[in-house]
Amino acid sequence: MTYVEGFLTPVPTANKAEYIKHAHSAIDLFKGLGATRFVEAWGDDVPDGKVNDLKQSVGLKDDETVLFSWLEYPDKATRDAANEKMMSDPNALEGMKDMPFDGSRMIFAGFEALVDTGPATTAPGYVDGYVLPVPTAKRDAYHALAARMAPVFQAHGALRVVEAWADDTPDGSVTDYNRATHKRADESVVYAWIEWPDKAARDAAWAAIMADDSNREPEPPFDGQRMMWGGFAPILDTAKA
To answer: Residues 182-197: pLDDT tens digits?
Structure first.
């Protein structure tokens, strides 16, 4: 099953072109380390939350935009080996010195896919990304809900749905997934996304899904108030190659 390295990154909006150039320069590195896909998606429709949100998660400033990005690996062993090689590669470390964003506020962690439907080779025009805390004891219940909803999204035009369960979510010096979701000791973090052909298809799908009462879960197995989500426009996707 797919292993995901999921990122949330605050980037000065004025540095968008520089960031895209920086991200493209890392494609060969990640491919060489075994990554099967690399996606960077620019915040487009990221709402404020009552408790938390994706912008707060990275301490976003007024002149910054939050990115939802991920690397896909065939398995955890490949990802772990990739990270170990990067940390010992002088060229990789040199490239991290001149990043066009505040790396101390970038969040990253490893996740194991629970649900992965649809091809990973079709590049979407739009992505819904979401992060949420789920009681660890309710993993099976959450998996069942995610597996039930994935074909609903696809029936309304989604290209792919991925739901990934926390495997390695380290604490950060400034922020991290644990703090961003207000995760409790008995909870785990989920990192997930839905790939759409474009924003219009996404908007139409959500309107139809929300209007259908059969899609509502009486008692969802997580605290919806702490779920963070947003819409993102891909600025790099190796699937396009």
So the answer is: 999 999 999 999 999 9
Sequence length of the chain is 241
Q: Which CB contacts under 8 angstroms, 24+ apart, belong to 22-28?
A: 22/98, 22/99, 22/100, 23/235, 23/236, 24/236, 25/95, 26/95, 27/236, 27/238
Q: Which of 79, 48, 58, 74 is nearest to 11 (CA)?
A: 58
Which residues is 230 bridged to in the sheet? Answer: 129
| Per-state percent for the chain, helix, strand, coil, to nearest 5 | 35, 35, 30
> Who contacts 43 (Cβ-Cβ below 8 Å, separation ≥6)?
54, 55, 65, 66, 67, 68, 230, 232
Q: Which of 3, 230, 40, 11 is nearest to 131 (CA)?
A: 230
Measured torsion, CA atoms of residues 16, 21, 83, 125, in degrees rounded to the nearest 10: 60
122-165 residue pLDDT tens: 999 999 999 999 999 999 999 999 999 999 999 999 999 999 99
The rounded distance, in Å, linking the Cα atoms of 40 and 139 is 28
- pTM of full prediction above 0.85: yes
Q: What angle do CA 54, 210, 115 make, to 5 degrees?
A: 60
Tokens standing for residue 46? 């990221």
Euclidean distance between CA atoms 122 and 200, whole angstroms = 18
Give the confidence band of 80 by pLDDT, cuts at 50, 70, 90: very high
